[in-house]
Amino acid sequence: MMKRFTKEENSWIFYDWASSAYSIIISTAVFPIYYKAAAMNAGVSAANSTAYLGYTISIATFILAMLGPILGTIADYQGYKKRFFSFFFTLGMGFTALLAFIPSEQWLLLLVCYTLAAIGFSGSNIFYDAFLVDVTTEERMNRISARGFGLGYIGSTIPFIISIAIIVLAQSELIPLSTTVASKIAFIITAVWWGLFAIPLFKNVHQRYYIEREPNPVFNSFKRLSQTLKEVRKHRALFLFLLAYFFYIDGVGTIITMSTAYGTDLGISSTSLLIILFVTQVVAAPFAILYGRLSERFTGKKMLYVGIIIYMGVCIYAYFLDSTMDFWILAMLVATSQGGIQALSRSYYAKLIPKEKANEFFGFYNIFGKFASIMGPLLVGVTAQVTGNSSSGVFSLVILFIIGILILIKVPEPKV
């Protein structure tokens, strides 16, 4: 399977395999539970511990959203892209590992390390995404981007299974470890997995498109960023796509991040939710790859339409949920399009931007993705509170997908 791709393409793809362990273990599953237990054992109320975690995520998101275009503009100079990627990768992996060595009662220090790990993870992804233009041709971008997401889903399940197995065995007292120690082992597994499979990218992926270095690169980068901000509306296709992306990716991200809370409101047990989360990752892998293959036959834009329409169906179906089986069906529907819509958005955008300014433009892509994560949860929360029904909150997200697809229709196909 992998022989059909070049060494550079394979090396780039495997970074998704490497970093996705962080997404599920640190962002979604193990760390939030570990932190909540640590904070509550230290006397912090459940409501306050949740609020502090929310503030932490918001701070990390805001920092990256602000730094992304600035750092990306500087990184467009020859030789800078790999340096910035290396810095954020080291920051993320290092502080992920450090989480295992912080005493569990130091919940505030845990949040500080988590913030730095999150900045490292998201920051490295800005430059990783931008490397897509360096490793492949425009004709192959959809397939390569989708393959990365597909292998990312597969790769994340392996350390996740190992970590969950250790934690469950510790909880059952089948191995002589406390749950705290077992969770710390999961953090080490994540860091090691991330670092090990990032090696091919460091060895084989290099910046092919760049701007020649010039005196005062930082000052000149700010000038270029200012010029880009003034001219972005002149690039009609790019501007419209970012606007469409802002709306539909907000719906996608909200469904991903709030699925556990929604399932809990339906009365689904935490064990069932973990199993559903695992199966969703497994099912999402081949579908992400399938989206890449189908995009070569039907175009990436048409497959984005398919993904958005499926998500609209998810929002409507969510309104009528009343059982665990319904939630399983909903999760599998999400799995069919979750990776595909993200992968094709990344490659579609990469085709629209000037290659020599990939870092700068992916910095803007990062801003739209980050700030989009504010509106969806707010819409769900307000609607759920007004109606007293979580299902109504999820149903309200259909508005974002409708706006997104209507704007996307106006975006011209990239010229290949």
From TrEMBL:
InterPro entries: Atg22-like, ATG22/LtaA_families, MFS_dom, MFS_trans_sf
Record has Hydrolase as a keyword: no
Residue ranges of domain Major facilitator superfamily (MFS) profile in the record: 237-416
Protein name (database record): MFS transporter
Entry keywords, A to Z: Membrane, Transmembrane, Transmembrane helix, Transport
Organism whose genome encodes this protein: Metabacillus endolithicus
TM region(s), chain numbering: 12-35, 55-77, 84-102, 108-128, 149-169, 181-202, 237-262, 268-291, 303-321, 327-349, 361-380, 392-411
Pfam family, one: ATG22
Gene3D superfamilies xref list: MFS general substrate transporter like domains
Subcellular location: Cell membrane
Topology relative to the membrane: Multi-pass membrane protein
